[in-house]
What does this fold into?
Amino acid sequence: MVKHENGRSDRSPAEVYEAFFVPALFQQWGARVAAEAGITSGQRVLDVACGTGVLACAAAERAGPEAEVVGLDANAEMLAVARRKSASIEWLEGRAEALPFPDGSFDAVVSQFGFMFFDDRPAALREMCRVLRPGGNLAVAVCDGLEHSPGYAALAELLQRLFGDQVANAFRAPFVLGDERLLLALCSEAGITDAKVMRHEGTVRFPSIDALISTERACVWTLGGMLDEGQFARLRQEAEPALRGFAAADGSVAFAMPALVITAHKGDSVECGWVA
It folds into this structure.
């Protein structure tokens, strides 16, 4: 368990993600990624690295009551939170690099903001290809490069100045795939030769600078466990002037955080032959 914002409440990392990161960053993307996958009524859809179920729920809403939606994640705590959202979605524990489904099981495979953390990214893409039916669609969203998210870039610079490479690089980790050429190279390695990558604009919103810093510190995927109490106090103090330019008169914080979305359409062959 973790304490969030001065010990106000005890929450698991997955609960912190759902309570704070989802409304601040990720909720806006579910319907957009589902649309990029061209999900239609009654389809069978797989959400890989589903987390707490933002995209899976958006896919289920788009596909309607006759659809079958499966959310898969390697983190049992994230799935526990997801199960509270929908009993109609099948929630399974598993890894993207070894999807526990037969070939050609799904009409659409989607994933948002998990691909950056996969152990073997080409293998994960090959698996997504394998479980897609001929004619099926793929849509995978990742964070764009840090240079396109000015608030997070400023925070990364602050972490670098205060704590050095280890902490700053941990924070930068979600942005490492923010390069169209790199994503296309990964697709090519996986046998997806005609994928497209498009930038989509998004916005980060937190009620305050302190809420942003406290949430980032609680995140096990970036800063969680890396800062002691003294370091955290120093970060909170230094963050106010460093991020003031992104704060509105009421203290709320907003800045751009675009995403890159890979899309591809599986051809008629059951092999990994694709056309965009």
About this structure: The longest strand covers residues 132-143.
